[in-house]
Design brief:
Bound molecules: NADPH dihydro-nicotinamide-adenine-dinucleotide phosphate
Strand content: 15-25%
Largest sheet: 6 strands, mixed
Shape: globular
Number of helices: 10
Structural class: alpha/beta
CATH superfamily of the largest domain: Leucine Dehydrogenase, chain A, domain 1
CATH architecture of the largest domain: 3-Layer(aba) Sandwich
Radius of gyration: 18 Å
Strand order of the largest sheet: 2-1-3-5-6-4
């Protein structure tokens, strides 16, 4: 029997993870099965434990279970600890290991696939939720000149800054961004999921080279439309991040890092 993996979330019907991991397995000659499980709000933990009992080797975790997966684990990576969330689990020697590859997946997409190294750049990240938590450590390690977090709820942003306590990390209210310029702006809010635009002051994207939208498959979101209107040279959505975090998990489980370019191209929907 081949090794078993699965993604668990709620709802799970739109997940692309089985397709992505299936393509990785095929391309790297790995024999594995990868399924999708609709998580239950009352029995998520039991579902994970049963999957492991039945021979599962690892799982991807998506909304809304990342925090519960983190809590269920016996060991957690530094990235997962900072994010207080797990997006991947590995079952090994009777233990549950937790990782969070969302941030490193986002960083790889920006630096490797889009060719925009963060070193010495001015980066603005919108939001202070789970995705930002996961991204902060890899982003700061990439050496930006400054990393500014803007969020409506400043208490959340303040907690993040205090936890990291890094000299190049600043937090800001949206209105305080007026008159500032950034090379790379990442929309890591969930505003696009409801067709909304974070309350960015006009002109804040005027010096921006790359506008990155974490949501994917939605075409030009209000944020990307704003970027286009302000003449931002390059726009991207989160499909590359999705594939890159999957590649990190695949490498963690299988010891082989799959090629991602072809898979990203296959899943990309034009932004226009
Ligand atoms: P969370 O629910 O943890 O955080 C949501 C964040 O969005 C909060 O900071 C919230 O601000 C902010 N927000 C929501 N609505 C608005 C609005 N109208 N204006 C301004 N800010 C708003 O979500 P996640 O961090 O988990 O996910 C964020 C986004 O990233 C989602 O679109 C998700 O789909 C995407 N994502 C993409 C991945 C990929 O692989 N491409 C992986 C993970 C996430 P406040 O605190 O002020 O309420």
């Amino acid at each position: 029997m081949s090794d078993r993996y699965a993604v668990i979330g709620r709802p799970i019907n739109h997940t692309k993870s089985p397709l992505i991991h299936g393509l990785f397995a095929e391309a790297s000659g790995q024999a594995l099965e990868y399924g999708a499980i609709e998580g239950g709000l009352d029995d998520f933990e039991t579902q994970v434990l049963h999957f492991r009992r039945d021979g599962g080797r690892g799982m991807n975790i998506t909304a809304p279970f990342k925090l519960r997966a983190f809590e269920l684990a016996d060991r957690r990576s530094e990235r997962a600890q900072l994010a207080r969330a797990a997006n991947a689990l590995k079952f090994e020697d009777g233990r549950i290991l937790a990782e969070n590859f969302d941030g490193i997946g986002l960083l790889r997409d920006i630096e490797e696939n889009l060719g925009e190294p963060l070193r010495d750049t001015r980066v603005l990240m919108l939001g202070a939720g789970g995705a930002v938590r996961g991204a902060l450590l890899p982003f700061l390690q990439a050496g930006p000149r400054e990393l500014v977090i803007a969020n409506r709820d400043m208490a959340k942003a303040l907690t993040l800054r205090n936890e990291l306590n890094h000299p190049r990390l600043r937090i800001s209210r949206y209105e305080e961004l007026e008159g500032l310029g950034f090379d790379i702006v990442v929309n890591a809010t969930s505003a696009s999921l409801t067709g909304e635009l974070p309350p960015l002051p006009k002109g804040v994207l005027a010096e921006t080279r790359l506008a990155y939208e974490l949501a994917y498959g939605k075409g030009l979101t209000p944020f990307l439309r704003m970027a286009k209107a302000q003449g931002v040279a390059r726009m991207a959505d989160g499909v590359g991040m999705l594939v890159e975090q999957a590649a990190e998990a695949f490498a963690w489980w299988r010891g082989v890092r799959p090629e991602t370019r072809g898979v990203i191209d296959r899943l990309t929907i034009a932004l226009e």
